Amino acid sequence: MDAASDIAHEAQHHHGPASGLSRWVFTTNHKDIGTLYMWFSFLMFLTGGSMALVIRAELFQPGLQLVDPGFFNQMTTMHGLIMVFGAVMPAFVGLANWLIPMMVGAPDMALPRMNNLSFWILPFAFTMLLMTLFMDGGAPNFGWTFYAPLSTQYAPPTVNYFIFGVHLMGISSIMGAINVIATIFNMRAPGMTLMKMPLFVWTWLITAFLLLAAMPVLACVVTMMLFDINFGTSFFNAAGGGDPVLFQHLFWFFGHPEVYIMILPAFGIVSQIIPTFSRKPLFGYASMVYATASIALLSFIVWAHHMFTVGMPLAGELFFMYATMLIAVPTGVKVFNWISTMFRGSLTFETPMLFAIAFIVLFTIGGFSGLMLAISPADFQYHDTYFVVAHFHYVLVPGAVFAIIAAVYYWLPKWCGRMYDERLGKIHFWWSFIGLNLTFFPMHFIGLAGMPRRIPDYALQFADFNMLASIGGFVFGFAQVFFLFIVIRCITSGEKAAANPWEGAEGLEWTLPSPAPYHSFGTPPKID
Amino acid sequence: MQPNSRKTLVLATLIPIVMFGFGFALVPLYDVFCRVTGLNGKVNTSPLTEAEQRNRNNQQETMSRGVRVQFVTMNNGDMPWEFAPLEHDAVKVQTGEDFTAMFRVTNTTDRFMQGRAVPSVSPSEAAQYFHKVQCFCFDQQDLEAGESLDMPVVFEVDKELPDHIRTITLAYTLFDVTQVANNN
Question: Which residue on chain A is closest to B184 by alpha carbon?
């Protein structure tokens, strides 16, 4: 292609999307990239979900029936990795792409070409990770936390694919985070001061800094693994003077901020939706910002609460216990503010609001079980049991996932210009809500009774609750296929949506027509 | 790209680069932290510094007392060698006095192998009071088929050892490093 036609091609871009596949491969448009992220994340959500169903099917009854234990281990590992890095994180980056420029009155993300690259790395990263399932030795089988020496000396040979996959995911997340920071700092419309930004923008800004600080440490850990496995170093090999506990410290130094990377944008989403359907401004905007920032800072000094049982000295146990409990304070501020926003509001319960309220209730349950786990002496009993599984699924599924689903229902009219079917949305909510609680609530009980996690078989006394959890898992899983149906039906044949389909919605994105034009805010909007 | 965005891009790229370096710096930091606090049973094998020696002399008044030191040997994984303390499984030593314990290791296989013993002291609180004057820890031992080797460890328990510690366990884990050594 010569230079002239290159320029001609560029010119076309400024009028509307290119046609065909190249539109998606070469796009630098924040809305296109946001859409790509969202669909990719949903594909990964179904992939990781299918793996969860393999796990739940095997655990339907005690004894080994469907899959062999080695494959079961591969499923628990891949389910965790794909849900964390493939489903939740890309979904949030997709929402950031779609919403942040519209919310701050910018025409696009600040670094559009890097934006394209950061998305298109992901399919390669996950192809690399997923194809290990079909290789000799099988997929990684050491759990998503890949503790050494399981992931080094005793790892299947495919571990190298896993390492490079994680490197690619990390690079993608870091580029996405840089883009968000550059957009928020440089592209805000005149008058959009920091303390006027919608809370979703604020929480994403803080998340982006968490990503910049935490992801490189993950890259360090997997690089050290790579060296230990292939080049004879001994970072984690006790025989060479290394230390496997060092692995856990490094991993959780990344891993705990990662937990907040997966929940802070969800806080932002809920803080957008609750005021809309309460028809009141958000209660305590400034305290929300400060609470988010303090959660982010605290997240770097609590990592060892994941490893209370490694033999830490008393001082360490106490420090990490109290620091962890401290996080409940800013989190409590947030929950208080959401409830106060609803207090005496004119509430209506459209689907996004239902998911947002369920988020508050169920995330708080997950927060409380987190406080129980934070109590170091009690943690010795809970450690590595299903109680932990129940805890982090309560903060991630009705936490992160419900917030993402709420966001999709809330902004779908803006994205595609059509309304979803409210009745089907409500059915989806109650279907998911019942399935989710049926899956994860019994796990608290079998965990407290001592059922260990990541084991394909269990003692007979856990049979009834496991059967309930498995039924719930399938109920929840098929609800998400129904969600896909609702979204496709909305895109193809939903009723036309108004520019602002929600009575109480505030924010710049609702001043644009629905669907949002391919290029928006070419001239910055006026902000009072 | 706006000039502002370029500046943000550069500054924001610095953070992950610094954190990547910090991640690797955590490895020696962790080691130093464990050594200083005696966590993880890591023992200081370097000779006493001048200041420590002076401090030691000032403490001559402190009463010496008896403390039980027990020796534990373990083989990691499938390491086939025989490895055990030569004379005693446990001894009573006086704090502030040197003691020499012997360990015998035998390559019971019919091939050349390399091993390495890694020490650990329990309770971890005692690690900082347990001074090894001479030790075979971390040294690579090359043994021909059937060969035996007696290895001495010379240690001294500090007089400052807190009173509630009456027994100290010195544990060695023997690793097969034949493969690792060849890679190096």
Answer: A232
Query: Are the Cβ atoms of A221 and B173 closer than 8 angstroms?
Result: no
- The CATH number of residue A231's host domain is 1.20.210.10
Burial of A128 (0-12, 13-18, 19+ CB in 10 A): buried
Contact B15 A212 (CB under 8 A): yes
Containing structural domain, residue A421: 26-511
Cross-chain residue pair B19–A232, CB shorter than 8 Å: no
How many independent structural domains does chain A possess?
Answer: 1
Helices (H), A231-350: 244-261, 264-278, 285-298, 314-326, 328-342
DSSP A318: H
What's the half-sphere exposure (Cβ side, CA atoms, 13 Å) at B171? Answer: 16
Residue of A171, A212, A218 to mutate for B, most B C-beta atoms under 10 A: A212
Which residue of chain A comes nearest to B41, CA vs CA?
A311
Per-residue pLDDT of chain A (528 residues), as tens digits, is: 344 444 444 444 456 787 888 899 999 999 999 999 999 999 999 999 999 999 999 999 999 999 999 999 999 999 999 999 999 999 999 999 999 999 999 999 999 999 999 999 999 999 999 999 999 989 999 999 999 899 998 999 999 999 999 999 999 999 999 999 999 999 999 999 999 999 999 999 999 999 999 999 999 999 999 999 999 888 998 877 788 999 999 999 999 999 999 999 999 999 999 999 999 999 999 999 999 999 999 999 999 999 999 988 888 899 999 999 999 999 999 999 999 999 999 999 999 999 999 999 999 999 999 999 999 999 999 999 999 999 999 999 999 999 999 999 999 999 999 999 999 999 999 999 999 999 999 999 999 999 999 999 999 999 999 999 999 999 999 999 999 999 999 999 999 999 999 988 999 999 999 999 999 998 999 887
Could A243 and B40 be called an inter-chain contact, meaning their C-beta atoms sit closer than 8 Å?
Answer: yes
Report pTM. 0.88
Question: Which residue range forms the structural domain that includes residue B120?
Answer: 39-183
Nearest CA in chain A to B181: A232
How many structural domains is chain B composed of? Answer: 1
Residues with Cβ < 8 Å from B6, sequence gap 6 or more?
none
A310 inside 8 A of chain B by CB: no
Report whether A499 contacts A512 (CB < 8 A). Answer: yes
Distance CA A294, CA A347 (A): 30
Asked if the structure places residue A18 within a domain, the reply is no
